[in-house]
Amino acid sequence: MRANRAEEPRLEPSMVADVARLVREVPIPRPFSMNGLVDRLNRHRGKPIRLMRGDLSGTMPTGLLLRTEAADYIVVIRDVQRGHARHIHFHELGHILLEDADLAGPCLPQADPRARAADELMAEEFAHQLAERIDAHPCAGTGAETIPPLRRWARPSRRGRTCAA
Q1: For 39, which of 33, 90, 146, 160 is 20 to 30 Å away at the CA?
Q2: Which domains does the chain have, with CATH numbers?
């Protein structure tokens, strides 16, 4: 007899589709660079995203999102490998853009645990889909991609939120 295991949390197909629509709207620079991506997002959002490397220690996560009224800060610890850092950046960008598009709730520790788990899954799905889109694009490096307007990201963001990866 097998022991009952808790079912792995999964996203509903409609949530995966919402993430896919959002990922298709991300203005990816060609050739790709993280700074180029953030520069494009900053122009469309009206609120800056700042990428930082930090010396987080102890039980701190490898990445951290801090949302303020003035800017959103993504902090990745210094000794994280480049590929892992890229994934952390994509995951935290997912939190920012999903919340800006009202597809996810605020990234607060006191949020409902089920909603928080769903938001984390959506941010992970965003990170994976964005990486696939960037890595598989046939025009990689040519700058030939047409970028749709980012209508949903113009709303002012809520303030004072933190989220860890």
Answers
A1: 160
A2: 13-164 (1.10.10.2910)
